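Re: folding output
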Amino acid sequence: MGAIIELCARYLRVFGAAWAERGKLAPRRHDGLERQFLPAILEIVETPASPLGRAVMWSIVAALATALLWSYLGEVDEVAVAPGKIIVADKPKLVQPAETAVVRRILVREGDAVTAGQTLIELDAAATATAAETERLRGALSAARLEATRYAALQEAALNPAAVVQLQAAAGASEREIAAELQAARSQHQEHRARLQSLRAEQARREAELAAAREVAAKLERTAPIARRRAEDYKSLAERHFVSEHAYLEREQVRIEQEQELAYQTAHVRELEAAVSEARSRESTYTAEYRRGNDGARLDAEKRAAQLAQELLKAGTREAQQRLAAPVAGIVQQLAVHSVGGVVTPAQALMLIVPHDYQPEVEAVLPNKDVGFVKVGQAAVVKVETFPYTHYGTLAGTVSFVSADAISDEKRGLVFQAYIRLTRATLEVNGRPVRLTPGMQVSAEINTGRRRVIDFFLDPMRKTVAESLHER
């Protein structure tokens, strides 16, 4: 190891000495005047070469080195190019019929501006029958509500005898209908009061009979012991022959008659007590049944009114569906019906309404090779084919949606759908803003990141090397 070091040191000393004497070792150079007197061949040999060629060579080498260094260190934007078209962000509104019908009137034309709620097409699907059914349901609903109000008023009057039967006005009922229903309610209430008074009168009559029978029975209960005592006394006197046998038999007959009358009156009192109890029960039963009937009739009327209200709502909806109105303010496009009397079917697309002041959006298709690098939120530059970007510039946008599944395209194969939200809806054309129109073809360049320049040249070679030497 020491020998190697010593050898290296020796060579360094020799190189240093030679470098120090390099001026003496170089051959003598003639100046320009001396070279002119030399032979031609020696003049050519002695004349130094022009420095221009060497400068050009080193310039080329420096440029190549600089380019290589820049390609290694420098980065450029990497974009995914996605063709597409301009669409409306909130989608055009489709106008469709709900059922099969005949076109009665067409009130708009292609390109017309319409307001929200404006009638576009009038249909005729037995509209007369629909209107008649709606009117019938409206009348039935009013009658059901009045009936429910009537039974509620009757119930209140039944619970409070001092109350006067009054009806609350029902929605949709006329004054004549309310008056007729009030008259019916008061007649029914009078019948109820008459029936109740009849039952109470019957009860009072039975109670009076019971009171009279009780008085008779009480009187007999007081006099029967006296008659029995007299009969016993006369029997004792007759046995001792102080009175005649006939006198005793007369007293005995009086005793028997009074005891039988007392038994009869006692039974009659019990019978009348049962009759009074039955009369009271009839009144209670009638009152309970009357109130229960009022409640039941009111609930039935309210249930019927609720059902009729739903049917009326459906009928009104069906009637309203015969007039197709604009869902939003906008422009009529793709009008599909042009003749009065034509037949339309349910869910048939009759026209589109493109909203006013719509926000344009780009609907683009991403190739399969780029979809893995495109994410929501990435910036994009949109070039409109109608207006060359070299003259009119580009539009800035942001990726707002990337589909999770591929769709089949006849020309491109499996592609993915993406939406790009634009920052503005106009382009400056010849000094004036021009609004983007749905359907314009565009090309979107989505910035997916940055990449070294040298990779653009190395990747094909890497791919070739990676895929070579494998084939059969």
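--- second protein (sequence, then structure) ---
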Amino acid sequence: MSQDRLKALDDLGLETSAFKVLCYLSFKDRAMKPSEIAEKVWEKASTVRARLTELKDAGLITATPEGYISNLTPYDMLMKLYREIKEELKG
């Protein structure tokens, strides 16, 4: 993973709708439409569309004609959680 993507991922809070959307997409093996994502992560479609734009601008996802796909793997998401937990245990 590039340093820019790693920083963008690490800047996301775990409790944010952006993290929920990115996590959901990272574990999917196909492109998804904003309305599908909204239904699955229990967020408003307008919120999901706004977060998708932010994630795309950060290089974390890609927009395709079929929908959005994550540029990250499930491993990347698990490592984010690991880093967060590790930091929490230090403090």
